[in-house]
Every structure is written in C-alpha cells, then in structure tokens.
Amino acid sequence: MARDMSDAEIMKMELEQLQKEVKNTREPVSKSAKEICEWVETQSAEDPLIKGVPEDKNPFKDKGGCIIT
Q1: pLDDT reported for residue 2
Q2: What pLDDT sits at residue 15?
Q3: Distances (CA, A) of 55 to 23, 43, 48, 65, 66
Q4: Which CATH architecture has domain 7-57?
Q5: Where is the stretch described as Disordered (predicted)?
Q6: What is the residue extent of each domain of the chain?
Q7: Residues 6+ apart with CB under 8 A from 50
Q8: Which residues of the chain carry a pLDDT beneath 70?
Q9: How far apart are CA 50 and CA 37, in angstroms?
Q10: CA distance 38 to 31
C-alpha cells in the first residue's frame, strides 16, 4: 500500500496518527506496572496455568490407553 502512495500522502497519514496518539492519556510505567502486578495476583487463583485443570474437566486428558497386541 505504501508503495502506491506519494511521500506527501505518507507524511499526512503519519501526522494524523501522531495527532491521535497525542490525545492518549499517559501514565508512568511505575504506576502501570504496580497495577498490572496487583491484577495478576488477584487473578492467579483462577488461572488454569497456575492452578491446573481438574481431571474431570480436562478435555485433553487421555481417554484410554492404546493396546497393541
């Protein structure tokens, strides 16, 4: 797509994107990281990768062994 556009059109698109981005509210990484860590800790009790999946609800467990005679 960019090959079909002139330099002026590309610059105009970049300017429009930057104008959108400048309106976004920004927060310090220290605050955001703390909030993310707290959220992960509260959700960890329900996380199947941490807690594990009960055998009766695991759709991927082996249904039965393969017997070759």
Answers
A1: 60
A2: 97
A3: 49, 21, 12, 16, 19
A4: Irregular (4.10)
A5: 50-69
A6: 7-57
A7: 44
A8: 1-2, 64-66
A9: 15
A10: 11
